[in-house]
Amino acid sequence: xxxxxxxxxxxxxxxxxxxxxxxxxxxxxxxxxxxxxxxxxxxxxxxxxxxxxxxxxxxxxxxxxxxxxxxxxxxxxxxxxxxxxxxxxxxxxxxxxxxxxxxxxxxxxxxxxxxxxxxxxxxxxxxxxxxxxxxxxxxxxxxxxxxxxxxxxxxxxxxxxxxxxxxxxxxxxxxxxxxxxxxxxxxxxxxxxxxxxxxxxxxxxxxxxxxxxxxxxxxxxxxxxxxxxxxxxxxxxxxxxxxxxxxxxxxxxxxxxxxxxxxxxxxxxxxxxxxxxxxxxxxxxxxxxxxxxxxxxxxxxxxxxxxxx
Length: 309
Description:
Elements: E1 4-5, E2 12-13, E3 16-19, H1 27-30, H2 36-47, E4 53-55, H3 65-77, E5 85-90, H4 101-115, E6 120-126, H5 141-150, E7 154-161, H6 164-171, E8 178-182, H7 193-201, E9 205-209, E10 226-227, E11 230-231, H8 234-250, H9 254-263, E12 270-274, H10 279-289, H11 296-302
Parallel strand pairs: 3-4, 3-12, 4-5, 5-6, 6-7, 7-8, 8-9, 9-12
Antiparallel strand pairs: 1-2, 10-11
Helix pairs in contact: 2-3, 4-5, 9-10
């Protein structure tokens, strides 16, 4: 699979990145169980695929379940494959909500121990919109992250969040090389366009996560009425239904159009897609490679809702 350089990081990545919150035991969010063996086999299948990029996080599951499962896959594989890029995120303490600078360091230490690694190339500040402390204050999360990078424990810093304004505040510090936003740049929602455009202009790597909006654009609105894991007004469901009908008439899966809306964008380096079983890897690559008629794109554009999440 053709690779691109992730902004100014110099890191070569595939246009698809697999996300791992789906193997973290979030049954309330995703509606299904994933046992240990299936999770490990899924990660091993990623290692054996054309995809070289994996995204995880400290709070993905109780006691870092996703990271522990990835760590087991790494051990079985005998290490990460050559050229493979694994990034993780720092998170607040799940019990106390502490998101201080000291907690940021502990979060990274926990992640590295679970993964069985000495370092990661990219470390992201995760969900700063939910911080109970000021991340910009002395001794706060930002100061700790910069020190971690300057000490050589990671190569690059990222912001991974949903809130556009808070994300931009962190990017404006000039300390971050990568931005990840989820659910806000899809066939149904374009809120992150200006964020991504500005990041691209400044040479940052851009990751677009959840191109299916939590399932509405893969399973269809009849099977998944929620967008971004929450209830949405009828405008989203109506647009998704109309888009599904347009795709069916064109002989194209709705999921393929949703995925390629992201992967074809010049603003985006890699699109993050959650996986929960080994066969999902080949299915996702097939959606990425599906031929979509040029005439379908303006039709889908005309069907997007005016509502935002």
